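Dear colleagues,

For the upcoming journal club I promised to circulate an example of a predicted protein-ligand complex. I picked one with fructose -6-phosphate because it came up in last month's discussion. The inputs are reproduced below in full, followed by the predicted structure.
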Amino acid sequence: MKILVVKDYYDMSRLAAQAVAEVVTGTEKPVLGLATGSTPVGTYKLLVEMCKTGKLSFRNVTTVNLDEYVGLGKRDEQSYVHFMHENFFDRTDIPERNTNLPNGLAKDLDKECARYHDLLGEYRQDLQILGLGSNGHIGFNEPNTSFESTTHVVDLSQSTIRDNARFFPHPSCVPTRAITMGIAEIMNSKKILVLANGANKADAVYQMVYGEIKENCPASVLQRHPECTLIVDETAGARLLNVK
Ligand code: F6R
């Protein structure tokens, strides 16, 4: 794993946007795996700027997102599809038909998982962006999810519900289930870029890089990926800096 510890959130976002831009310009039909949450917001902002100033186009890009809450759709402000439109899709030239997320409103969730799995078979990610849960989750693959998992419905852990409550009017409004890309489908990406900032991620970052590769820390599987880069700010990387 290539590890970059940078000064702050802006530097993390700048390097991440550069990495995305390289894949977009260097690939004929680029497929980007995207994440939501607070971590990649700055990266999306910089990519939007590049697009607005004519430096980068997403016209030929296809996107596949990691996850979506069960029961939320585009009209719900806290849904991930809403987040993606607000932060990225509606501000760039990407055609909406090229964007994909699991459908949290699907009536038959098993069927929806199968559909998304097939879609990922068709659109293998050239680059997958990942944030990191403070409990070591990637996508919504919570601790003790099988490394062989494919797209599935997950019961969110109490710590994830607590962490994500900041986006909702009240903790009781946080959905308890989500559809997530599985760990096997994340690992199938040609390249992976993990981003983390803030002191609350320091332990998870350390476990991901130096911990035993074990399902109790889903992100530890990334040690096995041949092309994985981690970009962290100094606070999230604090425990890495102390390793001799
Ligand atoms: C989001 C996702 C999650 C987040 C993680 C970190 O699509 O899959 O794994 O990346 O929970 O969230 P933030 O960035 O809000 O700290």
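Two points we might discuss: Residues 9-26 form the longest helix (18 residues). Residues 202 and 238 are 6 Å apart (CA to CA).

See you all on Thursday,
B. R.
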